[in-house]
Design a protein that fits this description.
Length: 241
């Protein structure tokens, strides 16, 4: 059970589908972070039907491999969070764009602020050149974030950030449905309806995903539409959720 004496204080989750090129460096950096900050961490790699060596690499680094046959970012994160045993659960992409060393600071911050969900805001931090497409940075994400702020009264400014930490025990209270990229917005909208205490922290560095050995899974227009549809659908059903 999360929070017991012998359980990890934090579960750190990497949703992965064919991340054999980038995963080793992410896991090595995370293991170094855990040693440096004396984190009692459960490391989870969600294998989202990979066809490369992702699960074998994860096991070699001592990570717990959780299979998820439903293809999609949201499905993979959901499977990882359900397997989390720590009092807090955190996740980010395994493509090298998010420096995993910051999980130690995020754990400290969510405790200090007494928050239920803390998000690493890329847009108010330092973004290296070519780390985020122009339209995503200056149009898509800001507009969707504004919509969530307006409809759900939650102070979110980077709704698409994939680096977050939350209280594990609360996650089961969210009626999650989306299996794709719109899961990121769905989590925020549902957390707002459940009156979670939400906070953001400016991510010091967001990097290009140069470690990735494959094209990104993101489909800009299709995923953007799904985000918009999900936000409006939850708002329309808010009194029944």
């Amino acid at each position: 059970m999360p929070g017991t004496k012998n359980s990890p204080e934090i579960s750190i989750i990497f949703p992965c589908r064919n991340e054999a090129y980038s995963l080793p460096a992410c896991l090595e950096e995370l293991l170094q972070t855990c040693r440096r900050y004396h984190l009692r961490a459960q490391i989870i790699v969600v294998d989202n039907a990979s066809t490369d060596d992702t699960p074998r690499i994860a096991a070699r680094y001592g990570a717990e491999v959780v299979p998820c046959q439903t293809i999609g970012y949201g499905a993979a994160v959901h499977c990882g969070l359900l397997a989390a045993k720590g009092e807090y659960a955190a996740f980010c992409d395994a493509d090298g764009s998010y420096p995993v060393q910051y999980f130690a600071q995020m754990l400290q911050l969510i405790k200090q602020r007494g928050a239920d969900l803390l998000l690493a805001n890329r847009l108010h931090g330092h973004i290296l050149p070519h780390a985020m497409p122009f339209l995503n940075r200056y149009a898509g994400t800001p507009v969707l974030s504004w919509l969530i702020r307006t409809l759900f009264k939650i102070p979110v400014y980077d709704c698409n950030s994939g680096m977050r930490i939350l209280r594990t025990r609360l996650y089961a209270t969210l009626p999650i449905q989306h299996t794709g990229m719109a899961y990121a917005s769905e989590m925020l909208c549902l957390a707002a309806l459940k009156k979670w205490k939400y906070t953001e922290w400016n991510l010091p560095l967001f990097k290009p995903d140069t470690r990735r050995g494959r094209p990104p899974h993101l489909r800009r227009w299709q995923d953007g539409y799904q985000h918009l549809k999900t936000i409006l659908s939850i708002f329309a059903r808010r009194n029944r959720l």
